[in-house]
Amino acid sequence: MIIAIDGPAASGKGTIARALARHFGLPHLDTGLLYRAVGREALVRGIAFDDGPALAELAAALDVSALDPEPLKAGPVGEAASRVAAINEVRQALMTLQRDFATQAGGAVLDGRDIGTVIAPEAQVKIFVTATPEARAQRRHAELVARGEEVTPQSVLDDIRKRDQRDSSRASAPLTKAADAVELDNTTLGPAESVARALEIVASRTE
Ligand SMILES: Nc1ncnc2c1ncn2[C@@H]1O[C@H](COP(=O)(O)OP(=O)(O)OP(=O)(O)O)[C@@H](O)[C@H]1O
Ligand SMILES: Nc1ccn([C@@H]2O[C@H](COP(=O)(O)O)[C@@H](O)[C@H]2O)c(=O)n1
User: Global pTM?
Assistant: First the structure.
């Protein structure tokens, strides 16, 4: 079974995806980490966010087994990820490894922005996780403060809105709900309730 979880920043995709993967004993890939790794490397090496060939080279050289989520979850890396994710050559360079992960024997859970639409349109279960920008900003703000970052609630909300806009309006694989995805709005749901709702959705799609 392939489970595709998509949605905007800090909607709780990863929380749900990890829980479903644990529940069903499936491997999980947080595809945002791939774009974050390319974005971070571009920042470190001073590569411009519109230099398609150089960014694609970084993407093609990624060692997925060596991705350390900790530095990749920093606030500025999220912004850099969204910039490089708008470059079609980068998306193409990361396509095969995501498709290979999705189609491995036994199934998989992937979360991102284009899993149900581009990476695994054949997924049996597609969940589009949403929450208001304000709820998502509150969650991301708490997360970044806990990491020791100095950010204000307003700056995080501005960043979320900017990222939503860029991710939804880019020409290549924009963030959008697949026609056959079930929407899960968890604005007023906690993590456990969101996971419970996601399990109901899986059950409704697989019974
Ligand atoms: N339903 C929820 N209610 C409140 N907080 C939540 C909920 N789901 C997740 N969180 C918290 O919000 C933050 C973001 O969650 P998570 O990383 O799962 O989101 P995401 O959509 O995967 O984010 P990303 O933009 O990195 O892809 C985390 O600190 C997480 O613990
Ligand atoms: N399938 C995906 C996953 C991510 N992105 C881009 O990466 C940015 C960071 O992702 P997070 O899930 O870690 O927040 C995100 O803003 C997207 O621009 C993507 O394009 N496709």
Answer: 0.96
